[in-house]
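Render this sequence as a predicted structure.
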Amino acid sequence: MYKWVDQDGNISYSDHPPYKGAKKLEAPALSSVPATDIPEKKPETAAETSGEDEKKITKYAYLRITSPENDATIRDNNGNFSISISIKPSLNTKAGDYFSVLMDGKVILDKLSSTSVSMTNIDRGSHTVSVTVNSKDGKPIRKSSPVTVHVHRQSILRKQPR
């Protein structure tokens, strides 16, 4: 490696000397650290994990529909839209917890584990949507606040212009 200072006082470095006034530099020795051994983790048996999971009931601090917002208007002639769910802590699927989506007080989608849900062919009009987290035996653990959505679809009774 070479280092030199040009006539304007700029310091430059290169692996080839540009002219005779360059000063040769010695690179410092590279330091290395040996890898550490990571002890292998003993795999848990199915009996150990299922017993622990069944005893633990997850307490969900937060469950909310983040999309669509309350009082949202959805314009889709097929009546399709998506729901996004926010939950803290994450859904405990190991214990068998799952989501249910309710529309107008009735379960329309059940046993879901995804925080994004697609709604299809929803009738036009205003609907109240909420989400519950249920334990594996079907008991509700937590329920979100309801969100009102207004679905606009073209009426089949309206005549199309020619």
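Summary. The chain has a mean pLDDT of 84. The radius of gyration is 31 Å.
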